Amino acid sequence: MAGVTIWHNPACGTSRRVLEAIRAAGFEPEVVDYKRQPPGRAALAAAIAAAGLTPREAMRKKEGATWLADPRLDDGALLDTMAGDPALIERPFVFTPQGVRLCRPAERLAEILPG
């Protein structure tokens, strides 16, 4: 099946497990190391919206500076920050014709992977 893409971080165990699960299901995805090839702000915003998340929900908490937890920061400020520092994007995002999911936990992959 064409059209499976993963925003992947090879250093992340969950991201590696999701990539393995995609391949085990018989699909060879487009693998995008999003830290080396970061999505633009518009692509990031579209992925977050398609996954049914808010920018705050899609932000990696472990990597974030404490100031990012400030509830007064709006979605635009969070998107700008993630677009400028892709290490702050939670992972892995997976894109299939059935939808987009932030596959954390890895079991979320089943919601969009055919078969």
TrEMBL record:
Keywords: Arsenical resistance, Oxidoreductase. It comes from the Bacteria. Belongs to the ArsC family. InterPro entries: Arsenate_reductase-like, Thioredoxin-like_sf. PANTHER family: ARSENATE REDUCTASE (PTHR30041), ARSENATE REDUCTASE-RELATED (PTHR30041:SF5). Pfam families: ArsC. The keyword Lyase does not apply. PROSITE patterns: ARSC. The keyword Oxidoreductase applies. This is Arsenate reductase (Glutaredoxin). It comes from Pararoseomonas baculiformis.
